[in-house]
Structure formats: structure tokens, C-alpha cells
Specification:
mainly beta, 3-stranded antiparallel β-sheet, about 10% helix, about 30% strand, single chain, elongated, about 60 residues, binds zinc ion, two-stranded antiparallel sheet
Amino acid sequence: MAVLDPCDNCGRPTPIYRLAAVILDGRVARLCPLCASTERERIEVPYAPRADQGAIQPSTARDVW
Ligand SMILES: [Zn+2]
């Protein structure tokens, strides 16, 4: 059974392995996948969720805008 923990942003019970550790407003927070995508402009991700970041640089660059 997955262990549920509340999302630090919306409080939704989320399996721990799905919570993303991010920097939100300068503090460490764990966000559910939904918040991790909707709050993307507020969070700083200290590390990429996937290890193949160096190989592929998708068009998530901020210099688009
Ligand atoms: Zn959430």
C-alpha cells in the first residue's frame, strides 16, 4: 500500500512517491503532481525529476517569454 501524505499546497492526500520536493516561496515543500504543474511559476525545482536532463533540453526554457 502506498503511504499517503498531504500536499503542502492543497492538502490533497497523495502517495509519498508522487510528491515532488520543490522550493516554494523559498521553502522546501512537497507538492502533488497537480500543484507541481499548476504552481510551476512559483516553484523552483532543486533537481529534475528525471536523470536524463543533461541529454535532452526540452522547450521548457524560460526565454520563450
Ligand atoms: Zn497539491
